[in-house]
Amino acid sequence: MSLKESYQFCFKMGAAIPRHVLKDEPVLRHIAQEYDSITCENDMKPENLLDAEANRKEPERYDRSPAVTFEKIDPYMEYAKKNGIGMRGHTLVWHNQTPRWFFAKDYRNEEDAPLADRETMLARMESYIRTVMTYVQQKWPGVIYAWDVVNEAVVEEGLRESFWTGTVGQDFVLQAFRFARKYSDGSAALFYNDYDTFLPWKREAIYDLILRPLLEEGLVDGMGMQTHLTMETDLDEYEKSLRYYGALPLQVQITELDIHNTDPSEESMERLAQRYESLFDQLVKARKDKAADLTGVTFWGLQDDMSWLTAFRKERSYPLLFDGQLKPKKAYYAVLGAAEK
Ligand code: 9MR
């Protein structure tokens, strides 16, 4: 049985995929066999959808309605549609992977170009969200079932300072969700997505700053727990967060799961497998106890040698269920096993 078959009774199973696998038939067959959800690892982020050339060439024309291009995402959408695979839309509004010129007056590219004013940036945000959502709803109906409307807006000091807070202001999250709700045809749930959601201060801060105000206006449908774990992450705290968000009138999705591990030895991969098993035990139990409306689990990568962690941590990581040859590791069987208990 595959991952998606084993967990069909519980939630969708997904993986983030990079662009190059779209040309790799054996990998595409593997995805269709194991998963019923995919996320573009990078291609649905603003830096890949915004049409840099058009906007910067005709800044007056596009000032309040940025030009967007879909050539990078169409191949993913087509593959998903053809294979009956759902997609998480990642991500509409983010401080990262959104070019600085997008926030600049007249889309100017210089590093110190003055920023656009609030009204202009609100118009650009609305237009971007409308254009992207409308396109996928009309051209690829039924494929995207969840949108990460805003990603990673909370830090220890409160709301993260970014070009979004610097232009629109402190209400940029609320504004983004209002636009997403306005242009959604209801086929996709609207998510707030963040990392380190297992930290006690962060789960509270996300509720206070983000979820509570959004819930008051009925603007949010789900909480995305990214779930980039290490071998040391406190899984009891993780479970508390899962149940904390689960107690809210929201879906919960695990959106970017991996467990950083630098030691490929057999014992270490066995410990990794045990950790995945403990985590999936929690997830299945939360679902069975109705402690969380957990609707999907997505791994952040297909196989160890495609993981972002190796570059980010500057040390080779073996964090996923499949090795460099796409061969299932012990962790894969441990995850399958957790579904059968
Ligand atoms: O995996 C993505 C990596 O290829 C990019 O270089 C990186 C740049 O921001 O983004 C990675 O994906 C991130 C995701 O979009 C949001 N949460 C954290 C992920 C890992 O950095």
Query: How is the main sheet built?
Result: 8 strands, parallel, barrel
Q: Span between N and C termini? A: 15 Å
- What is the multimeric organization of the chains shown? single chain
Please tell me how large the radius of gyration is.
20 Å
Shape: globular
Strand order of the largest sheet: 1-2-3-4-7-8-10-11
User: What portion of the residues fall into strands of 2 or more residues?
Assistant: 15-25%
Number of strands: 11
Low-pLDDT runs? none
Heterogens:
ligand 9MR
Helix content: 40-55%
Give average pLDDT, whole number. 98
Structural class: alpha/beta
Number of helical segments with 4 or more residues:
14
Helix-strand topology string: HEHEHHHHEHEEEHHEHEEHEHEHH
Describe this structure in words.
By secondary structure, this protein is of the alpha/beta class. Helix content is 42%, strand content 18%. The chain has 14 helices and 11 strands. The protein has helices spanning 3-6, 25-34, 46-49, 52-57, 59-62, 74-82, 118-139, 163-167, 172-183, 200-216, 235-246, 266-288, 309-313, 330-340; strands at 12-17, 37-40, 86-94, 144-151, 154-155, 158-159, 189-194, 222-225, 228-230, 251-260, 293-299. An 8-stranded parallel barrel has the order 1-2-3-4-7-8-10-11, surrounded by 5 helices. The protein has a two-stranded antiparallel sheet with strand order 5-6. Helix 7 runs parallel beside helix 9 (172-183), helix 11 (235-246) packs parallel to helix 12 (266-288) and helix 12 packs parallel to helix 14 (330-340). The longest helix has 23 residues, at 266-288. It starts with a helix and ends with a helix. The model has no long low-confidence stretch (mean pLDDT 98). Bound molecules: ligand 9MR. Ligand 9MR binds at residues 41-42, 96-97, 151, 195, 226, 256, 308.
